[in-house]
Each structure stands twice: as structure tokens, then as C-alpha cells.
Fold these 4 entries.
Entry 1:
Amino acid sequence: MPLSTSTETGVPIQGPTATLLYDDWYPALRADTLRKGKLATAMLLDLPLALGRREDGRVFAMRDSCPHRGIPLSYGWFDGQRVTCRYHGWEFEPCSGQCALIPSLTGHDRIDATRIYATAFPCEERDGYAWVYIPSPGSGRKDGSAERRRPVPELARFGPRYHTAHLAAGLPCNVDHGIIGLMDPAHGPFVHQAWWWRSRASIREKTKRFEPISEGFRMSSHAPSANSAPYKLLGVYGQPVETTIDFVLPNRRTEIIRCGDKWFSSLTTVTPVTGSTCRIDVVAAWNVFYHVPLVTPIAKFFGAKFVRQDQVTMIQQAEGLRHNPSLMLIDDADKPAKWYFALKQARLEAAATGAQPKHPMDGPVELHWRS
Ligand code: FES
Ligand SMILES: [Fe+2]
């Protein structure tokens, strides 16, 4: 799916920027694009990255900038062990960023190359993504702080046998709009109209219970909406269907559907590429309809259609946002969006003061809307 960040006339769409949350993990790219001996590039939180896979299989992410004169390291060479800058040939160990060689040095020089570091970020492979930990600007090298890092996000699985799929879509709006679009319950009947999902006419009043969880909130376990077709399919198992949806900072929505020993699990993230653009990634695993042929291509087809509907809407929204309109959040349908902004604010304040972040919810809440 192409990332559309310009209108048909080629005018770049660029709306307002969002404040970014650092000190957390973000998916940079699919790890299978990292081949031994090759460098790939990605942009995360306005940071250009050079990523690769060492000969021993370990993935790495460096700032795509040589500490000597700033040329992107991705223009250089990578032999599976060291990244070599194409300008003066400095060599770096890519996981630590440590400089291993400065070819121009002679016996007359006193400089110790190994005391020089290119910026390398913690990088871990999970669920097929290379996740990169982006510390706050100016917080120094990664060493020594591994215990203080939040854990690498991971898709929940409930058994050893499952199908899996993933998809991605670029959004030309900032991460806040991407996230509140993701948690917005009221757009469903309008944006996701389809015979196989739901129609505008199927709109009905819903009551959902939410509870606070650490740095997020949970739509408490409930029987899914009677007006969505995929859930109806689960009726074939003749077991009660329960679904739980969590949102957790900085950008994660997890949805778990369980029906006896059958399950579906997804992790959706909205990652800031720059201050004003983002990308949505969805990875899912399931054992429902495990033996039905073609279930993975069918799920991918419908999943991609669904995300494409959101993407098209946000491309249109970005056109409007370019002109900095004033916006509204209304009760109750926009309450999750309000919680998101409050949680984010609380994290930013806590990062500045060192205090515990204050949760915007006092306890469980019931929200009502029509969708
Ligand atoms: S700019 Fe990279 S070695 Fe000089
Ligand atoms: Fe949507």
C-alpha cells in the first residue's frame, strides 16, 4: 500500500505536528527486510535510522549519521560485522555504535578510536518487526539503562498453532490523529461500510465498560457487537465469545477475542514517522478457523481493505488539517481520545518531574454511543 503524503496535484500534505513520546519502543520495519550484509533505512520520530542484521543474526539500529561529518551511514558498507562510513572509512560495530577503526590514524596520533561512538539504539526483533527503543534526545548512550527500559511489546498468543498476518499503511497526519482515529468508535458505520462488515442502517446504541490499566485503559471483556459480521461467524463454535480491547501508551491497541479454545489476537501500533506523519502497523495471530483453507489470504484481504478505509479517510482529513482548524472532542464517543491525551500529558509531566504519572480515570466507567 503506497504511502500517500501528497495530493493528486503533488502538493505535500503536511498538517500540524504532535509532541512525541520518547523512552519507548517503536516498530521501525519488518525484520525480514534486514538481510545479512545489507543496510536498510527507516525514519522513526523524525530520526533517520540505518538498520541491519549482523552475521550472528542480531538486528541493530543506528542513527543514520556518521559522528565524524554527518554523512548517512547507509551510504557506506556493511560486511555483516562492521559498518564502514563511505566518506573517510571509519568502521563501527553496529550494535554498540563503537568505532573500531579510523583508517587515517598514524602512530603519531593519540586519539583512541574506540572511545568514539556512533549513535546506536537498542533494537529487538519481535513478531516480525525490528523494534527500536528511542530515548529522549540528549539522554546519552544506551548502556547501563537496559533494566529501566519498558519491555519490548509482544503480541499475545494462546497456543502453539496459529496463523499470522501483518499489514501497514502510512498516514499523512500526526500520531495523535492516527491514534484517536484508531480508538474512535463512532466512525465505524460511515468509514467501514461494507456488506461483510456493517452498514449505516445497522447503527445502534452501545454501552461499553472501560477500566483504567497501567498507562492506558481497557474496554472490559464483553460480548462483541451484534452488528458485526466477522463476530457472527464465531457463532459456529457455539461458545460464548469474549473480547477485550486495551489501549496502552505510547501507541498500542491490543484486541483479544476468545471463544472456548479458539482465539484471535492483534496488536496495532501507530508510530510517528515524523512529527506530522505516522504509520499504522497491524500484526495478528489466530487459531479460529485454523483448518479452513485460504483463511490467511482472506483475512489479509479484508484486513487490508479495512485499514485502507481508515487510510483514505485520514488522507482526506489531512487535507483539512493543513489549515489548522479548531477541533472538538465530544462525550461519550470521544472520551477514549480524551483519556489518550490526558495519559500522554501525564507521561510527559512525569518524565519532566520524576513523579509517578497520574491516571486520568478514577475507576471503571460506562460509556454510551451509537455506532
Ligand atoms: S564522515 Fe564518516 S568517516 Fe568521515
Ligand atoms: Fe477505523
Entry 2:
Amino acid sequence: MKLFYATGTCSLSPHIVLLEAGLPFSMVKVDLKTKKTEGGVDYFTINSKGAVPALELDDGRVLTEGPAVVQYIADQKPESGLAPRAGTFERYQLMEVLNYITSEVHKGFSPLFNPAASAEVKEAAVSTLTKKFDWLSGFLGNRSFLMGNTFTVADAYLFTVLNWTGHVKIDLSKWPVLAAFQARVRARPKVQEALAAEGLLK
Ligand SMILES: N[C@@H](CCC(=O)N[C@@H](CS)C(=O)NCC(=O)O)C(=O)O
């Protein structure tokens, strides 16, 4: 498998999941400004949406959309426990959380990374994210991970998006549950490996 990624973006989530699953894969860096891969290929020919992540399977098929990509990877290694078995109620609960992260949290950051967004728009985005973080904090409660005691693909995704708080000057220590979650996930050897590979370890 081949993961198309851009450093520190949402593609860090499938990067972590590939490592946690212990599956063989290669990485291809994408320049999101020029939409070219590091090899000079027009990235739109890989993903017509122009966004990372994209996962190219060994047979050449390409899967996009982070929540679908991480579930596909987890299902290649069911014994990893990275996702509850397909068809179970727990699997729908995982999808419920993945959907919340993608639509409410991930995309909630967008105005903060947009140089054209006004200070007012950015302030409103922080205020909206604050409500989402409040909910996530209560949902996590005293559990180690989003689905309970087992690390799943949802944790890789939440870790990835919470990692952006430092860049947009949101102080995660206001949510001790989320700060502790972040530290817990960050300490995992495969997460460290992914961060190191993307040059994100300070
Ligand atoms: N709906 C997509 C969104 C992916 C996305 O927003 N990727 C960002 C990086 S975090 C990106 O590639 N942005 C550049 C672009 O869309 O042109 C998914 O969930 O995978």
C-alpha cells in the first residue's frame, strides 16, 4: 500500500494506523500548494479532490477520505483491534465518533488555517471548537481511549487534529482530559515513529 501524505496534516492519522497495524506500506509526499507529488506527478490524477490522505492499494485502486481509509487499514488486520468487527454495533459507534471528528472538529479548524479568514471569523471558529472540545472531554471522561480501553483508529484521528491546537494557539490544558489523552497517545511507540518520520518530533 502507498499513503499519499502531507506533513502534519490529517494524513498523520492513517500514517499512525498503518504503523499500529504493522502492515507494509510506502509514503509519497504531496505538496498541497502545487498539487504535485514529490516525484512530480499531478496529484489530481491520484485524488481528483486534491486532498490528502489517499491510499493506493497494491492493485492500483485508490481510497480517499480519512475515516474510510483508516477503517480499511484496520480491517486488513482485524486482530489489531484498531476497529471493532464490521457489522457490530460497536463498529457503528466507531463510525459515529469518526464522523464527529471529521465534520465537527477537523473541519472546525479550517478557518484557523485560512490566511484570508478575518480575526472575527477565527474567533468564532475557536468558540465553536471550544464547544466541541467540551463535549469530547465529557465523552472521554475517565476512559483511556474514545472506545474505552482499546486504542482504535478514532484515537489516531483525534490525536492528529488535537495536535493542531498548538499551531493555532488554542491552549489544550484548558481541557485536562484531552491534554492527558494527547500525552497518552503521543507516548505510544508507533505514534512516536510516525511523528519522527514526518519530522514532527521537537
Ligand atoms: N474530507 C477529506 C478532507 C481531507 C483534508 O481536509 N485534507 C487536507 C489536509 S488536512 C488537505 O489536503 N487540504 C488541501 C486541499 O484540500 O486542497 C478527508 O476527510 O479525508
Entry 3:
Amino acid sequence: MKPPAACAGDALDTAAPCSEVNYLRWDLSAQQIGELTVELIEQTKRVYDQVGSQKFEDVSYESTLKALADAEVSYTVQRNILDFPQHVSPSKDIRTASTEADKKLSEFDVEMSMRQDVYQRIVWLQEKIQKDSLRPEAVRYLERLIKLGRRNGLHLPKDTQEKIKSIKKKLSLLCIDFNKNLNEDTTFLPLTREELGGLPEDFLNSLEKAGDDKLKVTLKYPHYFPLLKKCHVPETRRKVEEAFNCRCKQENCAILRELVTLRAQKSSLLGFSTHADYVLEMNMAKSSQVVATFLDELAQKLKPLGEQERAVILELKKAECEKRGLDFDGRINAWDMRYYMNQVEETRYSVDQNLLKEYFPMQVVTKGLLSIYQELLGLTFNLEENATVWHEDVKLYCVRDSASGKVIGKFYLDLYPREGKYGHAACFGLQPGCLRQDGSRQIAIAAMVANFTKPTPDAPSLLQHDEVETYFHEFGHVMHQLCSQAEFAMFSGTHVERDFVEAPSQMLENWVWEKEPLLRMSQHYRTGDTIPQELLDKLIKSRQANTGLFNLRQIVLAKVDQALHTQTSADPAEEYARLCQEILGVPATPGTNMPATFGHLAGGYDAQYYGYLWSEVYSMDMFHTRFKQEGVLNGKQVGMDYRSCILRPGGSQDASVMLKLFLGRDPKQDAFLLSKGLQVDSSEPPAC
Ligand SMILES: [Zn+2]
């Protein structure tokens, strides 16, 4: 299909002169973090005081909107220098100081977001100013600030504002603690080699000793997932699954209950019937009813598939119990799920994950991934030798636009687990790509933080295929951060609707399921051989393995999140157990409390976890409509269109507008449903 004219992949460079400075620094002591936090708060508050104390007749674009936007640019960078180390610093003292800084700054954020004096001047400006005298993005900024002001209740009576402010402060502190508890969790189980039966030798050799004949299994991803998939001792899997879903049970369960109550109170003060409706107003979905319909319809469609898959799993379990002389209890337990889903891949699709990972050494995957992204998006990456970073494992790359040679940004890769480090995979925006006070463009800098399998004395880091997928996914967020060319920090990078934010990176996951890209990022770590054709074909076919159960589980999580944020008094563990049984047909393990470990609920995804499934509608549509037709590796035009239509605007346009430009029409659900192994009903109205 011919790309729409407005999507032409030229003029990607901003007209503004570009400053290539990396303003970030990682050499602060715990004490300096504390001192600089106080300084940053004072500096920023002065700007707000100035804006808020102006006489109304003095209010202008420069004295108000631009002053706030400029302050936001330097504040964001400085704030990240102070609060990012809590997730990655190897020093516990620095992590603690950084968490404390984050708490102080979050409280300060609440204070500034509740400045009625500032809000009144913005409202006044909106009434007075000629809209056409402003650039379109400045109009959007103005409208957004007013919207956010109303969403903070700044148009309501003073005593209501005070209540909202106090709730917001409590909420931000509770969220920080919830995730800190999970990151700092050091629970491990001492297990014997016998108890760890079925796990490969390289995995066992990578474990630390815990006493004479025991090995230390932590609950970090590179231990938890391989164990749940491969350990053939059900009792071990049960113990580990139970411990995993009991992490931080006491403290986080209490926090979660408080979060849910406070969120409901705040939303009600603001005139919304539920917290979900309050949150969703800013998303593509707009209301909790639309989300409920989306999830229910999908659950209904996936139900028969889930039933079939459960039947297959039960058969496998029965056979395994007979083979190993174990009692067959006739049901699927939570600790059986991943084990038998893995068996489905191995037996029905003949994919041997342990053999497969030998073709995915970290170095080869990284090289292939980086080269694919460079070609696709017209970029050039260079490793910066001797860069100052926060840990010896971390690498820094400089990114140029290949056509102009201009630096557009930098990214850090921090790929292996460490004690006290952020436990999932995520992309952190550190320096927003936007205009600075003098009109020059600030380059965007982001960090990808992940917890991939570490190298061992005998072998390099060998990635499971799902780790390769995660790598592609998170790197997609990095590219979104770097390629966006917004004017305002508020619209930089991934600051798009939360139920669209996953779409760009989900779309890039498709590359790890296509033959040519897979060949580019794989090579046997000892022999240097390419993946045998047969194994490659089987891997690609196995994308359909367990789709029903996998997606039903995503629906369970999305519905738990919606349930907690549409009811005033829902018990998280009970709600989870009920939905697991009802939708997945697999009971939650008694005594566990999965929601207490569900970081998204306190990590900015409250009432928005559905966004993972929702944005897949768009990621699949974009992939199948354009890339699959025009080429996943040699589709230079489509890659540049993608960069200019989807990544370049950041949040400066609505997602629906960007999608229409890139697709040449409104989005449809067809490709999404087909990717889940479902039929497409042609009479169905367009999605979302
Ligand atoms: Zn993501």
C-alpha cells in the first residue's frame, strides 16, 4: 500500500539546533543525593511562585506556559539523576537515599500539581490568548495543563482540594514502598539437586551453594521461570510458586488495600463514580464499560481454545504421573501451568528450549537486534567506550540519524540481575527529547533495565527465546523515547495514551517470530552454526502454542485490576482467586496473594493493565497491514514511515490520528484476533 503523503519519511530532523549533551551523572553519594534533592525542590518552587504571583495583566505565553515548560525540562533530568539509582545502584545506601529522594520529590510533585494560583493564570491565559498565535503543540500543552488542573480538582472548593492533595501524597508514598518491597525481596529456597530434578546442568551450576548439599534458588525471574517450566518434581514447583506469590504478602497486601480505598475516595471527590473511570478518561478506551466489554468479548472468544488447551495439559499430566509413579489428582494446579505449557511446546511443537537457547548467546542477539533496529529505522548506533555508568555491566550507546549524521539520543543497556536491582524488564526515560529554554533540542536518553540469564563459568549468557522477545519489546520502548521529536517534555517519548504505549514495542516483538530476523540474531555459542531449518520452522509454528491460556491469564490480570478499581471494597486475593477459577479454570494456590506482588498496580498501570491486550490490536494491525506486506527487514520505506508517523510525534498527537496516518485507514481488530488463533467475523465493527 502506498503510504499516505503526510507520512513521508523525510524531514525527520528537527529544524532546531541540537545540543548533544548528556546531562545525566551517576557519581553522587547518598549525602549528595539528599542535598541536591532539597536544592532542586527550592529551585523549581521559585518558578512556580513566580508564575503564580504574577498580576493577571502580566500573564503571557512566555511568563507562564514557557516558564513552566522550561522548568519541567531541567526538573525532569535532575529528578531522574536523583531517583533512578533506587532501581539500579549496586550500593544499598545509595538506593535508600534515592528512594528517600523519590518520596520527597513525589510529595513536591503533588504540591506543585495542586497550585491553584498557577492554574488560575493558565486558565486566564487560555481565555485571553489568540490560539492561532501559538504553535499547535503549544495549544495542546495549554489544553493539557487545564485538563490536568481540573483532574486535580483545582476548580473545586479549597477544602476539597486539601483532601485531594493529602490523598495524592499518601498514594505516591505507598506506591514507592510497594515496589521497593518487591525489589528488595531476598527470599530464597535451599533445595537439593534431587529436588531440582529436570533442570539442566548449566542452570544448576549457576546457583550459589546454601549449605552442604543444597543450592540457593531465589525468586528472581532467571531462577523462577526456568524452574517452573522444567523442574519435574511437583512438590518443588509447588513450594517455589507458593513462595513467589507470597512475596511481601503482609506489607504489600496492606498497602494495596489502602491504595484501592484512597484511589476510590479521590475519584469520588472529583466527581467520578469509580477510579477506573477517572483514569480511563485520558485513555483511548475512555470508560470502564468499554474496557469491560473488550475483555469480556475476548474472554468469550478464547474460552473454547482455553478448554481445548486445558484438556491437552491434563492428558500430559496424567501421562507424566504414570511415568514418574506420582498420584494423579485430575486437575491443573497453579504450579503445573508453566510446566505443562512448556511440555506442550516441547511435545506438540517439538521445540526444545534448552537446545534452542544455545543459539541465542547474548552477544549475538544484541548484535543482531541492534543491527535490525538500525536498518529499520535509519539509525546508527555506536558504543561509547569508557562511559560513566552505574555498574560495570552497563553499556552506553550513541544514536545518530543515518541520513543526516546528527546525534538524536543515547541509551544505556543494563541487562543482568543484581541484588536490590529492579526486578522486571523496563525502559526508563532519563533525559526527555524536547526543546530547551534557548530553543535548542535536547537529545533523548533512556535506559533499558532487564534481568536476563547471566553468563556462567562454562558458557556465555544464553537467552531463552522469550527473553529474546522481551529484549525486542523493551528496546522498542527505547526507540520510542529516542525517535520522538516533541517540543515539550510532557509529550516526549512514550508519553502517549497508556493503552497505546505498548503498541510500538509489541509490534517489534513480531521480529522474533520471523525467519530472517531470527537468523540474523542467532548462532550456536560453541560451533558457530546457524539454527537448523527444522528447529526454526518449529519455533515459528509454536507461537500458537498455549495462546488460549496465555491470553486468558492476561484477561484475569486485567480484570483483577479493573475489579479493584471499580469497586470500593474488593479483597485483592479473593478477587484474583475468583477470576482465576472463573476465566482460566485453574485455581490460585491457597494462602498466596498474587496481587501483593503485582507491581503494575502500584507502578502507574492502575486500571490500565488491560492496555497490554488493547494495544495489541494496534500492534498487530500495524505489523500485518504494513510491515508484513512491505518487508520486515528490507522495508526501508515502511520503517521510516513507522518512525515518522508513530514514533516521531511522541504524545504530541492522539494515537488514533497517528494510527490512521500510518495505516491509511482506521484500525481494525482482524489481525489481532487472527494472531490469537481466532476467527474473524467480517460483520464486526472496527475495533475501539
Ligand atoms: Zn512494555
Entry 4:
Amino acid sequence: MESCRCCERALLAFALAFNPCLLFGDAMNPLDLDHLVQPDRVHRSVYTDQAIFDLEMEHMFEKTWVYCGHASQVKAVGDYHTLHIGRQPMVMVRDRDQSIRVLYNRCPHRGVQLCGTHSGNTGSGFVCPYHAWSFHLNGKVRAIPLAKGYEGTRFHLDDAQASMVPAARVDSYRGFVFASLSAEGPALLDFLGEAKVAFDDMCDRSPVGEVEVVPVCHRVVQHSNWKFFMENQLDALHPSVTHQSTGVSARRIEDRVKKNQGTAPLYFHYLSTFASSFDQWDSVQTVNFPYGHGILKAYMGLRPTDPDTLEYEGILKKAYGETKAEAYLSRSIHHVLIYPYLSVQSPLQQLRCLRPIGPDKTLSEIWHFRLKGAPEAIYRRALWYFNLVNSPATMINADDLENWTRGQWGLQSKGGDWVSFHRNTGGDTETNGVAYSNNGTSEVVMRNQFKAWQAYIRPAIQTAVSVA
Ligand code: FES
Ligand SMILES: [Fe+2]
């Protein structure tokens, strides 16, 4: 594997940052990944160190398949959506042939970003706001003002460097678009593996097998390392602690409404289940796949027998037949994690995507989707969950955010060097590379994520050692 200058600089900084006399004792190799990330504990620096963050961006985010957006975000020719893959500004755009392109959002003239907003329509091509170089929707240069100024120079319009640079690979699965900035690596479906069920589960709940993005995105900048979020999503121990006050209050009101009216709206249940007992959480299984992906199985019981649900289930059965519809409705999924950046709550049509900014700063994009062909009442449920649990205004998300910020502060301190992932070590069942927790609160989730983390980072460290 080749190492670029940026990577070598990051590794040098990394080596300096890990003065073994300060952190590990004299015998410690400053690039000893096996010491930094052990099977049951990791060194705090993997959450706080700028050089390690740079390695993550270069060797994880800028190499693996990264979620760009949903095809319905760019429905019409010229529709675009901007995003970051690692540190790289990109634009996803609908081309004239209906294909979706993912290009670096950078003018090849003097580097100006061509699209300056989150989304919009760029017409039949991109026009740079600086000197009006223009480009087709596939990124190829279209025209340059006063082209005669380049006569006799070594600049040529047919040179690839005159055009916008495309992502090395773009692919999609059931309307969810991914790009990789590396020409090498597994195909998208091999990368997703079993975790592709996130998209199957979401789409199969539509009677026509498709979802459509709701074009409202909550964007939250978390003052914590991206790994806090990823670990938290399948952390079944924290809800009844972190979210206890919300859960208990919601249950109290839910009980009162039930007493007075016979039933309570489902949104009370969204919140009241957070107050489940430790034992209840411990009985929910996590399934931990290669590449750090994972599933937290269902615990909420999202099939009430109200008229809206019964009508919806009837529509699904008509579309797919009794057996298939039943299989779709009874999949045991609450969260699917696609490591290192995506959390999908498919039964509730929610998706959260991380765009790391720095070791202690992470942007999360929070989206939800509409099941095409399903009744409006079913969409309202997705919207309730979006607003009550995942939006930045909720007590649930706010409590998580506070934990992660305080976690970041703690790991930046000198109060200890290690992060513990010891819970239920050795107590999980591993079959064909998949770890099934026998206790829902097992920290196998984090252990599995760091196994994948090491696989991404190890080649960079080995390159650095051979360079030295
Ligand atoms: S920087 Fe884009 S045209 Fe000059
Ligand atoms: Fe939480």
C-alpha cells in the first residue's frame, strides 16, 4: 500500500505524540497498534489525538464505501447534494442520463468549490462562481471563457486535470447511494454484508418496495469523537440510566392516558421503553458482523393493533402475500450500524450519518424517510420518532450528546489512560466471524468495532514502520 506525504506527516506527528516515556514506559514501541487497541480496552488517545484522527480519515473514511444520500434527494437532472467523505468535499448530482455522479466539489482552475449550498439544482451543468469555467454534470469541462488565452500553454481541455474529479467508485443499494474514493477494496455489497438488511428492512415495509427521503435534515455538531456515537447506538446498558428521567416521566403519563382512554398513542411508548429494567435490556441481543457493522435486535414491539396499523398491514399483505408480509413485519431489528459512520433504524425509517470534523468534533446528519404507498398515519409515526427521539430538540438525543461531550472531556484529561470494554468478554458466541451477544449489555459491540478499526489502520502503521 502506498503512503502519501500527508499520511507520512500524520504518522510522524503520531509518533511524536506517543512519546513512550510519557505514555507507555520505555519498552513501548510508539507505533504499537496492539498496545493502543487491545481486545478488552483501548487507549484514550484513539479518541483525542489529531494524528490518529488523520489516519482514520485517510485510511477509513477516504477508502471505504461512504453513504452519500438517497436517490430521491437528487430526483431531477441537475439536482445536487453536497457532503463530505472524510475530509473531502463532494457533490452528488443527477446526470442527464439519469445516473448519479459523485464528484469532488472543486473547480480544477483554482480550486473554488462549485456548489456552495447543501442542495439545489445546478441546471445543465456546473458553473464556477470565480472565473466561469463550466462543467457537464458528469464533471467533464464544458467551456472556459476566453479559451484563446491557453493557446501555446501546456493546458489542454482534453486533459483530465481540466475536469472535475469523480469519486473512484459509486454504487447504490435500493436507492441508497454510496461512494468510495479508492478504486480498490470490496464491492459495495461485500462491504455491507449482512448489514444490507438495514435497507431491505426499510424498503420492504413499503408496499411498493421503495422509500423516499423527507427533505428535512437535522444537522448536529457533536463535541465528541465520532466513535462515541457509533459505540452508543448498540449500547443497551445506557438507556435506562441516561434516559431514565424521560422514560419514567413518559411511562407515568402513558399509564394515565391508558387509564382514562383505554389506549395511549404509540409515541408515549417510544419514550417509555427507555425506562426498561437492566434485565430487560440485558435480554436484547446484539449481532456483530465483520467490518464493525452490527444489529441491535427489536425491543419496542412496534405492531400495535390500532386501526391505522391494521390497515397498513392489510395493504402490505395484499402487496406481498401473507407469508412474505409477515416475514417483513416481524424482522427483529431496532438499529443497524454500518461502521464507521451510519446508524439506520429501519422499522422507524430513520437514518443518521456521521461526518467527522476533528478528533473532538463530529457532524451528524439526521434523516427520515417515507414508505412509498403506505398510509399517511404510518408516515406520522416516523415523524414522531424523528422529532421525539432523534432530533436535537429532544430530551433523548440531548442526554446522549451530553454524555459524549463529558466523555470527550474525560478522555482528554490525565485522569487515566484506558477505556474499558471488559463487560462479558469471552461470554459471546462467535460463529463464522459473527459475534452474537448472550447478554444485550455485552461490550462485544465496541470490541467488534475496534477489531474493524485495527484492520483499517494497521496497514498505515505498517507502512510507517517500513518507511522509518
Ligand atoms: S476557480 Fe473556478 S473558474 Fe477560476
Ligand atoms: Fe441514548
